[in-house]
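Structure (tokenized):
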């Protein structure tokens, strides 16, 4: 493994498709090269997927901090549909969103991470801003269509509980907002860096 590669540690992830899709998504985040990133399946009570730093001795130095994306097969969304049975673009959109959170964490010092965790847990406005920021980061890394596909799939999947859909509407970007970000991202990619007069 070269120093620029991103070490991925899979924990309880038997699905080769999920491993492949996560690695593919992670490759589009050059800021995470050389960092230890975990993908872990476990039982969670309040989330279907979440991203957070790993609390170990590396936590105290931004340059060496490890990060983990956890997902559950035992919650509201995945009781209705197994994660590995979702369309590829939906799963990649979900992974891209979670990796967007990790990009958001990169430059936060220890106290910044603690205050982020408290703000996220205690204030719905703070949580809303964090979720929208993660979506925006994912779109800016080229995952706009996948973020949109994830949003549309979850909102149109008729077996999902109404309170889950209400949470999506409250905290995350709307489909229209995502489409606006995609257009802005596509336009910025088409604009030349230098214009000669």
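Design, position by position:
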């Amino acid at each position: 493994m070269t120093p620029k590669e991103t070490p991925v540690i899979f924990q309880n992830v038997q699905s080769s498709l999920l491993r492949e899709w996560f690695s593919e998504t992670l490759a589009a985040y050059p800021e995470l090269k050389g960092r230890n990133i975990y993908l872990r399946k476990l039982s969670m009570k309040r989330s279907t997927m979440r991203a957070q730093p790993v609390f170990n001795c590396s936590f105290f130095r931004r340059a060496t901090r490890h990060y983990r994306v956890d997902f559950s097969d035992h919650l509201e969304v995945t009781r209705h549909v197994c994660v590995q049975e979702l369309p590829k673009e939906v799963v990649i959109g979900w992974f891209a969103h979670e990796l967007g959170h990790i990009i958001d964490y990169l430059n936060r010092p220890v106290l910044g991470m603690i205050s982020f965790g408290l703000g996220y847990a205690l204030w719905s406005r703070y949580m809303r801003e964090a979720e929208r920021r993660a979506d925006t980061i994912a779109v800016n890394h080229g995952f706009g269509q996948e973020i949109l596909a994830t949003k549309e799939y979850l909102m149109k999947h008729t077996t999902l509980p109404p309170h889950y859909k209400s949470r999506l509407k409250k905290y995350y970007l709307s489909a229209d907002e995502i489409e606006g970000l995609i257009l802005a991202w596509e336009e910025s990619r088409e604009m030349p860096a230098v214009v000669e007069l």
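Reviewer-requested clarification: The mean pLDDT is 85. The longest helix spans residues 124-156.
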